[in-house]
């Protein structure tokens, strides 16, 4: 496994964990206050969609086959 694949899988896993944390907040209806102002629940729903999509995208990219470079197509100077 090369470093690009590992990086994509790590990023996909981090996005998945953030997605799960936001889903947990939405399910438990946990209240969050920032400097005394309550944060509504709808940003968590948006975060679930965005981080879930990013996680799936990263994992899909990490599983796609790598295309080897064709030395005949390289330009020489």
- Cα radius of gyration in angstroms: 19 Å
Give the topology string: H per helix, E per strand.
HEEH
Helix content: 55-70%
Structural class assignment: mainly alpha
Main sheet: strands, sense, barrel:
2 strands, antiparallel
Count every beta strand, where a strand is a DSSP E run of 2 or more residues: 2
Low-confidence stretches: none
Beta-strand proportion = 5-15%
Q: How many domains in all? A: 1
Query: What is the global morphology?
Result: elongated
Helix segment count? 2
Distance between the termini: 32 Å
Indicate the mean pLDDT.
89
What spatial order of strands do you see in the largest sheet? 1-2
Structural summary, described in words:
The chain has one domain (3-67). It contains 2 helices and 2 strands. The protein starts with a helix and ends in a 14-residue tail after the last helix. By secondary structure, the chain is mainly alpha-helical. The protein is 62% helix and 8% strand. The protein has a two-stranded antiparallel sheet.
Q: How is this structure best summarized?
A:
With 77 residues, the protein is mainly alpha-helical. 62% of the residues lie in helices and 8% in strands.
Supply the key terms:
2 helices; 2 strands; elongated; mainly alpha
Question: Helix and strand layout, with pairings?
Answer:
Blueprint: H1 3-28, E1 32-34, E2 37-39, H2 42-63
Antiparallel strand pairs: 1-2
Helix pairs in contact: 1-2
């Amino acid at each position: 496994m090369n470093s690009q694949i590992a990086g994509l899988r790590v990023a996909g896993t981090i996005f998945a964990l953030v997605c799960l944390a936001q889903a947990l907040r939405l399910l438990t209806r946990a209240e969050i206050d920032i400097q005394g102002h309550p944060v509504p629940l709808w940003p968590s729903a948006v975060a679930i969609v965005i981080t879930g999509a990013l996680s799936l995208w990263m994992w899909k990219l990490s599983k796609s086959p790598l295309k080897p470079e064709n030395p005949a197509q390289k330009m020489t100077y």
